[in-house]
Amino acid sequence: MAESTKPPPPPPLQNQDQPKEIGLPGPVPAGARDPAIDYITSKPYRPSTQRIIIDNVDIKNKCFTVSTDISVFLLDPSLSEIRLNLGQYCLLPKEDLTFDGKVTINGIEVEYERTNMAISGFPENQPKSLENFQNFIENIEAKRRYEYKLVLKIPSSLEIKQGQRVMLHIDTKVVNPKKGIHYVLNYTAEGELDQSSHFYTYKASFESSTHEWLPCFDNFNMLAVFDIIIKLPDTLAAVASGEHTDTIEKGDGTVEYVFRQLVPTSAANIGFTIGVFQQFMHPEMQDVMFLCPIGFLPMLKHTVAHCGRVFEFFEELLSSRFPFSCFHVIFVYNLPDEFVAYSGFSILSVDLLYHKKIIDVVQSTRKQIVNAIASQFFGCFVQPYRYRELWLVRSLARFITFLYIERSFGQCEYTFEFYTAMKEVCDYENRFGKICLSPRTRDDIQESFANSSLAGMTSPKQFDMFVKKGELVLRILHNKLGKESFMKVLHRLIYVATHFGQLQRQQMHWYYLTLTVETFFQTVLNVTGREVPSLIDQWIYGGGHAHLEVHYQVNRKRNIIEVEIKQEAKKGRQIYTGPLTVSVQEIDGSYNHIIQIDKEYVKEDIQCHSKGRNKKKKKVLISVGEEVEIDFSRFDPEATVLWVRIDPEMLLIREVNLSQPLIHHEYTVLYERDVCAQLNAIEVFKQTSTIQTIDVLNEVLANEKLFYQ
């Protein structure tokens, strides 16, 4: 039976007569269908618990055995088979005769087969066009969901009833995996394995790689609770997802590590690491443990010393406790990504560790560690319903990471992060076409190289752009709602997931631990009472960015600024309509003006406030509320406008080409305290520069009070 991927509808609007501070979904109106019921019935079967036993670990030969028991809730009485995900390096009992294993349902041995996807070439009878090729790729991607499926035949002797639970038992042997598990093998001079050797799981694709070593239902919305038992020689140690509940030492030189993940999660959030590690329990957090290879402990202690403040910040920001009972962070060699986040467990690169005398990597290292912690809230706890929502939870994690950056490193560093992200997104769209975060039809992605709905049609670079554009959209929403209201929305998501995650026997309510674009904005409406249709249509369902060509001149007789704004429809762009903020720095201070953009060419007059300049006046009040002393010796004695900024708060996803005299750009770099305006002015210097420009840059470099990167 084909598996439906259509999500249930978003939760109904909360009854206005109910108190909102409870933070739970409101009562379902009469005649409406509970989305949690739609969630539980959207597939013919769902897992509820999974027990995993890892044994016979042979690091040198890169193999181990996995035995798993999965409790499955059957919803279709006509079922004849159950399909699981299984990687090609997981060998079944009849595929490898070197180990004893079984595949059973309720203790009855069953027939099973592996269904590999056969990929054929582009049909010769079809014209070679971009549209036909796209159809061909999408068909392959649709089939890819069934790649390396393990099909268990339900025996006729087993009577199936709706709502029945059955127990699946599968034994496999993982041999020399090429994906999903990475081995670090170091040898001594005698040819023996060095104690620094270890191996760990990682995510080799955007979706998940857990099926590469574990038979499971490897879909984002197939949640379960997990028990993990890892049997090892007593010379090795293990860390895995969940709470470390027990360590059982056997008398035969072996040890069992027991982990329990009681918060419902997807198989994508299950992983482990095995090797020899040194441990460090953070003195401020008894439930947080850090591990590293032998020899790195002093650097580890120094690198993670700040982490106590990170947890405090997020718990205060989200008005919620850390979602898992404990947290393990392990540093390993040769990690293929910046970090890998599993439920209650994160893996980072040992290259991040630094000595206390090193200062130039402090910011970059802290950003990655903070992002790994933030991903526990959004990504591992609040999870995407499908792949197409993965960018949303990743962007939420990155956004609250940037809020910590603002608290720790200052407003300029926070602004610089978004400035960099916006520049990268706009440059990418100019080269490769629009980024549509949530396409509704094929027309929405007609001009795009990527489809955010299909992992197989997305490259790592494209997915990174999805996440960065998502960060920008969340910042726009944050500024539109206000920080307090926006954080109430995030608190609501965490609170609802916390409440329903504790109801382990009411499996249909696990739906509230997942997130879609629709339910996210439904939560925005429920919490704040505000709808943001223009934001959704422009930046979520629509692709591209605004490109504004801005020119102005000062009419001294009328004491106004005549502003012209042009837009041109080109690759990767959209024609923006809506409000645009223009900030004018005058002699008497900084003033913001709103221009309404309703077409491709707009001409608007802005009234100036300054009547004339007192030549003796040296101090000017700038936009940040600070008075700065300005040298007017090189400036026009009759001028009252010092410089202009377009969309100073970055409330749009845009690129701006502002045409103004070079002296205005020079004064922007020297005296403005908005780092984005300064960087934009420096970009102008690359095209047009003078001896005065060089003097300006030298003066900026000599000023220790200015932000730098």
UniProtKB/TrEMBL annotation:
Residues 544-661 form the Transcription initiation factor TFIID subunit 2 Ig-like domain. GO terms for cellular component: transcription factor TFIID complex. Keywords: Nucleus, Transcription, Transcription regulation. Residues 122-266 form the Aminopeptidase N-like N-terminal domain. It holds the Pfam family Peptidase_M1. It is found in: Nucleus. Residues 1-13 have a biased composition (Pro residues). Belongs to the TAF2 family. This is Transcription initiation factor TFIID subunit 2. The lineage of its organism: Eukaryota, Metazoa, Ecdysozoa, Nematoda, Chromadorea.
